[in-house]
Amino acid sequence: MFLYSAFYTLSNLEKLILHSVQSELPEYGGDGFVSLSILYISFAVFMWCVAPVMSVTGPKCALTLGAVGFSLYLASFLAERSWVLYLGSACNGIGAALIWTCQGVYIILNSTAATITRNTAIFSGLCHSSMLYGNLFVYISFEGKTRIDRSAQLLVIWVLLGLTVVAVILALLLPSPVHASERSSPRVGVLQAIHKSWAVATSTHMLILCPMFFYCAQVLLILINPFLENRPWMRTAIVFLGMISDFIAFLLSYLMYADNSIFGPTSDSTIITSRSWIAMVIALLLGLSDGIFMPMLISVVGKIYPDATASALTIYTFCFSLASAVSFFYSAFLGLHMQITVLVGQGITGALAFAYVNYHVWKK
């Protein structure tokens, strides 16, 4: 929660902070979209190295190293140097690859078949609630300001950097996984680990789930209940509920925002008048679906690959980060309405893919 409060808050503010820096230092050339693209590209590339790293360090140590990567990203904003920012973004991408895979492995190694959905839902709730705390802090810090000066920037950066340091310390204090001895794979070499990851990546169920992985990365609360455990068909129903929640948010966005609004301020007309409460409803709907998809996906992946969790979650996070990088790229060219059209098609494909895999896995 500490780590994600810091990361999500600063990444959301990155474009605004860098614009303020450029207004004071015209020679500064750092760009928020470039920074985030580097972050997610390094995230995707390093995913293939996570399994070998975990085979040597274990999930607890890997989580700690990942948290350090986040801290370096936050610290890069203090230097006001483009190359430092981009290097910090790459470090964050590497750290995120470790964190996103290892946290899933750690949850699975501390869960049983009856508790995995509950535990991932609790984790997802803590993860997404972190965005509330960080953004609330920024709202209070920036309230009444018409210009974000350097002192206000430094206050936010130092506080968020402090949160990542706390996260590193907490990662060091995590207990060893309960089921590590019976579920963890034996330590293997780098090439063997990569080969195992590739074998999992090319398995039938994993390939079918990939559209859902990509969809989850393209959209931005937790309402998952323990009664799901003995009703596998409910997982599919809940995923379709998440998809419907997204589609309602997409429809409202299509009606309320101009096609070119994604590129910056615009005077183009919209179908309905913009209202702040509608924007809040859109955010709520997207948050609801995001909170649904993660527990369901980790649950089904843990069921299919109980002895290869690191490799399976590597593929999940690889698809997630690759889709994010692609989305940042095409966001500079495609209007909002076209992006919504892409998301609708991807959402339908992903939900059907999940339903297929969930049915065949839990009927065994």
How would you describe the overall organization of this protein?
Mean pLDDT is 76; it is low at 217-230. The protein has twelve helices and no strands. The radius of gyration is 20 Å and the shape is globular. Helix 3 (82-109) runs antiparallel to helix 11 (309-330) and helix 8 packs antiparallel against helix 12. The longest helix has 45 residues, at 32-76. It has 364 residues and is mainly α. Helices cover 77% and strands 0% of the residues.
Our count of helices gives 12
**Which class do the helix and strand fractions yield?**
mainly alpha
Radius of gyration equals: 20 Å
Cα end-to-end separation = 36 Å
Classify the beta-strand content into a percent band. Answer: under 5%
The general outline is: globular
Number of strands: 0
Unreliable residue runs: 217-230
Largest sheet: none
- Average pLDDT for all residues: 76
Which range best describes the helical content: under 10%, 10-25%, 25-40%, 40-55%, 55-70% or over 70%?
over 70%
Order of helices and strands: HHHHHHHHHHHH
Question: What's the structural blueprint in terms of helices and strands?
Answer:
Blueprint: H1 2-24, H2 32-76, H3 82-109, H4 116-142, H5 150-172, H6 180-183, H7 190-201, H8 204-218, H9 233-256, H10 276-304, H11 309-330, H12 336-362
Helix pairs in contact: 1-2, 1-4, 1-5, 2-3, 2-5, 2-7, 2-11, 3-11, 4-5, 4-10, 7-11, 8-10, 8-11, 8-12, 9-10, 9-12, 10-12
